[in-house]
Amino acid sequence: MTSPTPPSPHGDRGDLFDPRCPTRGLLDRIGTKWTSMAIKVLAEASPGEVRFAELQRRMAGVSQKMLSVTLRGLTRDGLVGRRVEPTVPPRVYYRLTPLGLTLEQPLAMLRAWAEEHMAEVDRANRCGQEETAER
C-alpha cells in the first residue's frame, strides 16, 4: 500500500519542481505520443465516441496492448470515458470527458510545434552524431 501524497503548499495546484508532487507522474502519462494521438482522435469525434478498433486503425503503429494501457490510464485519470456494449464480442467505445477536452488544445500546440520544428531537431541530432563520430 502506498502512503498518501503530502498536501502541497500550493493547495490543489501541483508543483512540478517538488519531487513528491504527483504532477510529475501526470506529465509522464500525458506526455507520450500515444496519449497525444488518442486525445486528437477522440477530440475530432467529440462529443461522439470511437470504438477501440477504430482508434487502433487511426493510430498507425500502436499495438493493441499499448493502446489498451494508454486508454486505461486516460480513463483512470478522468480524461476519457469508456462504454461497453454487452455483445459477443463486447463493443467498447471511448470518448473524451470534459476534463479530457481541456487537454486537446495544449497537446495540439505541442504537436504543431513538433511537426514545425522536426527538421531542425533532426539536423541538430545529425550534427551531434557527426561530432561524436569524429571524436
* Mass-distribution shape: globular
- Helical content band: 55-70%
Indicate the radius of gyration in whole angstroms: 19 Å
Span of the ends, CA to CA: 49 Å
Strand order of the largest sheet: 1-3-2
Note poorly predicted spans: none
Query: From N to C, what is the helix and strand string?
Result: HHEHHEEH
Taking the sheet with the most strands, its summary is:
3 strands, antiparallel
Proportion of residues in extended strands: 5-15%
Quick tags:
135 residues, three-stranded antiparallel β-sheet, mainly alpha
Summarize this entry quickly.
The protein is mostly helical. The chain contains five helices and three strands, in the order H-H-E-H-H-E-E-H.
Could you explain how this protein is built, in words?
The structure is a single chain. With 135 residues, this protein is mainly alpha-helical. Helix content is 58%, strand content 10%. The protein contains 5 helices and 3 strands; from the N terminus they run H-H-E-H-H-E-E-H. The protein has helices at 23-30, 33-45, 52-58, 64-76, 98-134; strands spanning 50-51, 80-85, 91-96. Strands 1-3-2 form a 3-stranded antiparallel sheet. Helix 2 runs antiparallel to helix 5 (98-134). 13% of the residues are buried. The model has no long low-confidence stretch (mean pLDDT 89).
How would you summarize the topology of this molecule?
Layout: H1 23-30, H2 33-45, E1 50-51, H3 52-58, H4 64-76, E2 80-85, E3 91-96, H5 98-134
Antiparallel strand pairs: 1-3, 2-3
Helix pairs in contact: 2-5
